[in-house]
Amino acid sequence: MKNTPLTGALMVLLAAMLWGTTGTAQSMAPAQLPAQWVGALRLAMSALFFLAYVLLTQPRPRLRDDLRRMPWRWVLLSGACVATYNLSFFAGVKASGVAIGTAIAIGSGPLWAGLLQWLLAGQAPRAVWWLGTLLAVAGGALMVLAGSGGVQLNAMGVGLCLVAGLSYAAYALVNQRLVRQAAPSTVTLLVFGTAALIAVPAALLWVGAPTAVSTGGWLVVGYLGLVATGLAYLLFSSALRHISAATGVTLALAEPLTAFVLAVLVVGEHPAAGAFAGLGLVLAGLAVVIWAEVRGTPQLQDQ
After folding, report:
1. Is the pLDDT of residue 149 over 60?
2. pTM (2 decimals)?
3. Helices 273-294 and 5-19, axial angle in degrees (round to 10)
């Protein structure tokens, strides 16, 4: 397939817009549904989405061929990363607070991805990539922290959010290997099916069985699983055929932009001036990263 970095970048930006609706959707979830179960159930719902999508769209001979040559150890690793991200992110945000937790988890992801790509794949991002990434990370942090009041760090929460960022970066790198060997829809089905099989028992051990989930709760979980996770990660996985994993993780910082717009237009929040400054930094950083990718910097191409 011809490498079209701009197409890949646009797919990640669209996925990030869907991810950005997660916070607004979660605010509508019943209070009695633990955050760990929200994360686990949305993985289960997304796995059902991918199963239906594969059965409806994937030719059976191609599916059988993909399954025969699937590197299963990488599928298991990718699924474990997704499960770890979901559980550690929700627990870390609960311990640190939404603003601090989100800033650490989402902001550390691109930095972890750049380092992992350098150390494990031997592809060191150039200065222009780091410039755009650091601008976007700084802007995202400013957006979520502006007006949040005094910062009080919780060591356990910070650690969990850093683990979430690392898990997400590792998932992106491993998933890029997988989607270059099989159809993205098949890969996402296997990865998220594995993640659900890990996350559901883990949530059960962590917080116990949930109480009866209301209709509203299932609607929220359904949206998170089918749209904000299923459709979004299908776009993200497909994009990894066109761009580097590190760039994909950086472009996912567009997620706070959607959350910012929804907070203003839907929730009725009034962000501080610093949040608008952060918005400008994120846009500038993403523009630099897209420019670097479209120009085809050598470190972002296949070896």
Report:
1. no
2. 0.82
3. 150
